Amino acid sequence: MRHFLSIGIKFVVICTVVLSLYSVFQNPGVLSLLGISIALVGLGYLLGDVLILRRFGNLTATLSDFALSFLVLFFYGIIMDIPTWEAGNMALFSALFITVTESLFHFYMQNRVFDEPSYNDESYRTTKRINSRTMQTETSDEVFPYDVRRKQHKKKNKQN
């Protein structure tokens, strides 16, 4: 169930980036963009998230996701008969946006899907509830030095 949710999150992110960038600069069909998004999600999840992320960590998986996204989107642009420099630019910007979100997605995968937390939840629980019935407040004369002087002055006046 956790894998289905993470695949869904990855699909929404990649589909949003691909549909927004490619539909602004070109006029491809929505079904072809959804198809390339599904291909990117499938390849990226199997290679980048399941295999590389578990073995080599976030940085390597993020770089491999960048390379995979760029290559797939660049060849998709060439297949769609987009000029090479334009296909390269769109693939580069799409891969950059996907890479930024993938680094955050890898953090989610490590902590929620693979059950390998990078931090300890117990270390953040430093505050405990304190029962007010077991605590007492204390004050000393040094807290209010003017009161101490006043008390000393009153004592001297009473003695005289």
UniProtKB/TrEMBL annotation:
<keyword id="KW-1133">Transmembrane helix</keyword>
<feature type="transmembrane region" description="Helical">
    <location>
        <begin position="7"/>
        <end position="25"/>
    </location>
</feature>
<feature type="transmembrane region" description="Helical">
    <location>
        <begin position="31"/>
        <end position="52"/>
    </location>
</feature>
<feature type="compositionally biased region" description="Basic residues">
    <location>
        <begin position="150"/>
        <end position="160"/>
    </location>
</feature>
<feature type="region of interest" description="Disordered">
    <location>
        <begin position="133"/>
        <end position="160"/>
    </location>
</feature>
<keyword id="KW-0472">Membrane</keyword>
<dbReference type="InterPro" id="IPR019649">
    <property type="entry name" value="DUF2512"/>
</dbReference>
<keyword id="KW-0812">Transmembrane</keyword>
<feature type="transmembrane region" description="Helical">
    <location>
        <begin position="91"/>
        <end position="109"/>
    </location>
</feature>
<feature type="transmembrane region" description="Helical">
    <location>
        <begin position="59"/>
        <end position="79"/>
    </location>
</feature>
<dbReference type="Pfam" id="PF10710">
    <property type="entry name" value="DUF2512"/>
</dbReference>
<protein>
    <submittedName>
        <fullName>Uncharacterized protein</fullName>
    </submittedName>
</protein>
